[in-house]
Amino acid sequence: MATTNPITVHYWAGRGMCEPLRVALAAVGAPFTNQFLETKADLTALRDANDLAYGQVPMVEMDGGKFVQVQATLLYLARKHNLYPSELAAQYMCDATMAACADARRPLTGYAFTLDGAKVKSSFNFARYPAKWDELLTGRDYLLGATASMADVTMWEVLDFYEDIFGTALFRADFKAYPALLAHYDRVGRMGNLAQWKAARSTEFVDYATYARHVNQTLYE
User: Fold this and answer.
1) Alpha-carbon Rg of the chain, whole angstroms?
2) In terms of domains, do 174 and 108 share one?
3) Does residue 138 sit in the same domain as residue 210?
4) Are residues 152 and 214 in the same domain?
5) Reduced to 3 states, what is the DSSP secondary structure of residue 68?
6) pLDDT in tens, 30-56
7) pTM
8) Which of 1, 66, 76, 201 is most buried, with most CB under 10 Å away?
9) Exposure of 221 in the CB half-sphere (CA atoms within 13 A)
10) Alpha helices, DSSP H only, in the chain?
11) Is 64 helix (H, G, I), strand (E, B) or coil?
12) Can you give the residue range of the structural domain that contains 183?
């Protein structure tokens, strides 16, 4: 099912909490426009217009609605674009993996505010997350078998985030112990518009330090 255009994503010009949503939109082939926040006035305008149900971004305008809360919006997109299973046990596996991805990426979100790669790497739990995902993916193309789900997309985003921080060579070296997961990363990366969005970020996003400055001046100044 096609998503009604236009789609606008409201967030800062960096990854943060929003990137799973942008990646999901790219994976399903839904074009979107970014409306980047830079100042406190930008966020205040959204709040004053009652566009943010809980006063927070990210917010995605699509299908006549203003969607907040990342996990709920991911599930909306998953159900709409046939990236969510119909069986209860498979739904649990999808939901649990998506929740694990949210936990796994948390140390990565802090990088912009410290630029301390060593600290980020030491906090990234390879044994808990990549090792488990590699185990689940061994012998299959996707988490649930032959068909991709939103859980596959969110796993891809975690690895993509790591690669963005540390570079491709170090990323490949750090994940070489997880061959099924790396093969899955390459496979999912061919979905929809993911390759195009990955390339577009180099011109659409600001650098990590500038992103952190925009976040701080929006929230605290």
Assistant:
1) 17
2) yes
3) no
4) no
5) strand
6) 999 999 999 999 999 999 999 999 999
7) 0.96
8) 76
9) 12
10) 19-27, 40-48, 70-80, 88-104, 106-109, 111-114, 117-123, 130-137, 150-166, 168-174, 179-188, 194-204, 208-219
11) coil
12) 88-192
Mean pLDDT, residues 5-12:
93
Burial class (CB in 10 A: 0-12, 13-18, 19+), 95: middle
User: Rounded to whole angstroms, how far apart are CA atoms 116 and 6?
Assistant: 37
Written as one letter, the residue type at 160 is D
Which CATH number characterizes residue 53's domain? 3.40.30.10
40 close to 213: Cβ distance less than 8 angstroms: no
Number of domains in the chain: 2
Distance separating alpha carbons of residues 5 and 199, to the nearest angstrom = 22
pLDDT average, residue stretch 119-148: 97
Element (H, E) at 149: none
- φ/ψ bin of 10: left (φ > 0), alpha (ψ from -120 to 50), beta (otherwise): beta
